[in-house]
Give the backbone structure.
Amino acid sequence: MQRLGECLGSNRRFRIPYLRSLAILAAWQGHGAQAITHLREAAELAEEIGLPEEQWQIQARLAKVYEAEGEPAQARLAWAKAATIIQGLAQGIKDETLRARFLAGPQIQPVLQHAQGETQQGSADPAEASGT
């Protein structure tokens, strides 16, 4: 991975999948905090470059790592951000059939369901939602 990173140089677009790969490797090795750092950097780059297709996937991965690290509040935020990005992408699809297919896609649907479940859980417990 280190050699791959060196080959990328300053190409920000190629750095995103590199950072995502580093995050997966770090999580697999049990270094959740390091995985989060890599994913946050990847998310920032994707946002700066304007790649919402990458952003939602990074946010979904980030949510999973936060969950694994026992950080449910951060996970909820990441799920919500991923869902918001997906909804924004869907709004750009003018054809109703294509939009419905996009939202029902096998990668999209679990994220939306998870974010919806988090929203419902949050609204069901007002004390948790207010942080008390």
Summary: The chain has eight helices and no strands. The chain has one domain: 2-130.
